[in-house]
Specification:
single chain; two-stranded antiparallel sheet; 2 strands; elongated; transmembrane helix; Vacuolar iron transporter
Length: 269
């Protein structure tokens, strides 16, 4: 019996090696395992907050520049808006994460009560769910019977299969997501404003400073697009292009709106 088991294992390993090799002779090559994307809420917070910060801050600079305000106005309004929005987004991320955890915990408590007090109907619902997904009646019954022996696993499975919710993870730290969102927003959002600081010793032209802000914003968007592609396993060039396009569209809309309102208000020099 043990010999048969060893033989079966060896055969499976051999077949796996054969499956991993494509072609023959000089054209033989081994298929590479695709790279796994980065995981975690922190990554999502960095990308989301960074992209929103660059677009928001540069759009504000565009609208201010269209109104022919000074560099001082850009810095004061820009940094004030940056800090306020960063705090708002950080708190929003924290509140959202804690609310999601509370909802998941409450939903799990409800599901656990149902499994404890209505075991037969709950198992039948799960059985029908598996059959709708294409599982045979016999296999579905086997799976449900196995899950029914382990209450916690059955509760988690019901949450995911019937309610589309993952069980609450005690290791998640909502405050950490909020802090990462705030820091990411401040760091990336500062990029468009750096031009108005760096160029102070070299020029008094607000136009040149605005052009510098455009260049720095594009560079920041490109870097963020590359980072997003690295995280999600996408193509770098396409991700960078889409990210820059999104930022440029928002900035152009803000500039056009600022220019239009300035003319409507009769603020032309």
């Amino acid at each position: 019996m043990a010999e048969n088991s060893v033989t079966s294992t060896a055969r499976l390993l051999r077949e796996e090696d054969e499956d991993d090799v494509e072609g023959c002779g000089d054209g033989m090559r081994r298929r590479e395992r695709p790279k796994e994307p980065w995981k975690g809420e922190i990554v999502k917070s960095i990308v989301y907050a960074g992209l929103d910060a660059i677009v928001t801050c540069f759009s504000l600079i565009s609208s201010i520049s269209a109104g022919h305000l000074t560099s001082g106005d850009v810095l004061v309004l820009g940094f004030a808006n940056l800090v306020a929005d960063g705090i708002s987004m950080g708190c929003g991320d924290y509140v959202s994460a804690t609310t999601e955890q509370d909802v998941a915990a409450e939903e799990r408590a409800v599901t656990e009560w149902d499994v404890t007090n209505r075991s037969q109907p709950e198992q039948m619902e799960l059985l029908r769910k598996y059959q709708r997904l294409g599982m045979s009646a016999e296999d579905a019954e086997t799976v449900v019977n196995i899950f029914s022996k382990y209450k916690d696993m059955l509760v988690d499975e019901k949450m995911m299969a019937q309610k589309g919710m993952t069980p609450p993870d005690k290791e998640d730290k909502p405050w950490k997501n909020g802090l990462v969102t705030f820091v990411s927003f401040i760091v990336f959002g500062s990029a468009p404003l750096l031009s108005f600081i760096i160029l102070i010793p070299f020029t008094d032209s607000d136009t040149i400073k605005f052009i510098g802000a455009c260049v720095l914003s594009v560079l920041a968007l490109v870097l963020l697009g590359i980072a997003k592609a690295k995280i999600a396993g996408q193509k770098y060039a396409l991700s960078a292009f889409v990210t820059v396009l999104y930022g440029a569209t928002a900035a152009a809309a803000a500039y056009a709106l600022g220019w239009t309102l300035r003319n409507i208000a009769g603020l032309d020099e």
